[in-house]
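HOLO CASE FILE
Compound: flavin-adenine dinucleotide
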Amino acid sequence: MQGSHAAAAYHPDAILAGGGIIGLTLAVELRRRGLSVTVVERGQAMSSASWAAGGMLAVDDPQNPSALMPLCRLSRALYPEFLERVELLCGQRVPLRTQQALQYVDAQVPHGLRMATREPIAALAPGLEPGDLQFALLEEGSLDPNDLRTALPAAVLAAGGNILEETTVLGVKAGASGVRIQTASGVLSAGVFVNCCGAWAGDAALGGLPIAPVKGQMLNLHCAPERLRCVVRAPGVYLIPRGEGRVTIGSTIEDAGFDETVREASIAALAERARALVPELQPRPQAEHWAGLRPGTPDALPVLGAAAMEHCWHATGHYRDGILLAPATARLMAQMILGETPEIPVGDFSPRRFATAREGFRAAS
Ligand SMILES: Cc1cc2nc3c(=O)[nH]c(=O)nc-3n(C[C@H](O)[C@H](O)[C@H](O)COP(=O)(O)OP(=O)(O)OC[C@H]3O[C@@H](n4cnc5c(N)ncnc54)[C@H](O)[C@@H]3O)c2cc1C
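Model generated. Tokens follow.
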């Protein structure tokens, strides 16, 4: 997926480091606004957290920090338009595979949530054995990140953006009219630089933000499609049916550095919790499990805004909600980069809230 321009001669308006959902969705949005864009990706686009994710658009998850709510709502509102644009650009449809979710609630029902009676549970999830658990019924969609994995890079290219894969950003230096970006295979230049490096965005070369990887392990089990037709979130486990019998089960939340090893014991524990809820779930003979790294921040809020270095920006730290938050992130970042007022307040997400961050990118040589 190499861009067609010789690196030394080409000076796009924006270079985005990181070819996950955040970098690629921002690339589509900046192209829509008329900017030339190159995404520089260390490995393959859409192969890190954005592929490993569950794909729940969990706007009303009671575990979300309340300060995240306006961003969640904006992103939910933008999602249909985002998926339509991707399809229009590349011809690949990314469907919502579920439209509702059963969210476990304990004695205290969170404000605004509607308890699910027995009827909707029986209709949406006849295979579910809830036991003593109580659920709220949420109007919440989910997608399969595998669908985005091919569609989103194709949409960026179709929009006229470049993607340079197998190219690591090693340092950034600001000049009078833009940035020089040191990569493992040469120096690039651009008008602005955006750090979209997910769990790796805290690298000293990218400004030293306090971003930490939070490991999540996942697996697939299978049952007849009609037995589970909505997401189920229960204590210590969630189940995401994909519509053809495959059900993605997640996830661990681990502080394990950059380790992405799948552990048999963790997978077995998740499978056991899932089968306690839907006993018909079965594994396939071939292993279907994986792990990914969420980009965590100290306050569980993303980092969106200008970096200390001129012409540099951060769009990262989306922790458990980067699939949901990508369209709103792209919209707000494009507005900020273009000097417009962002359509919702972004103060809570400012990079400046981390006073201890060693702001200042490692210089390009
Ligand atoms: C198990 C799991 C389940 C999840 N479930 C959900 C869910 O249901 N719903 C939801 O909304 N979110 C979910 N998330 C969170 C979501 O996946 C992330 O928030 C989101 O993918 C972050 O996107 P990103 O583009 O910032 O990061 P990534 O997708 O990780 O992309 C970052 C990219 O940057 C590249 N990179 C790193 N360093 C450099 C460098 N120096 N130079 C060039 N490139 C570099 C990496 O190779 C990588 O491709 C889940 C995450 C995990 C791990």
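CASE NOTES: The CA atoms of residues 107 and 148 lie 37 Å apart. The first helix runs from residue 21 to 32.
CLOSED: yes
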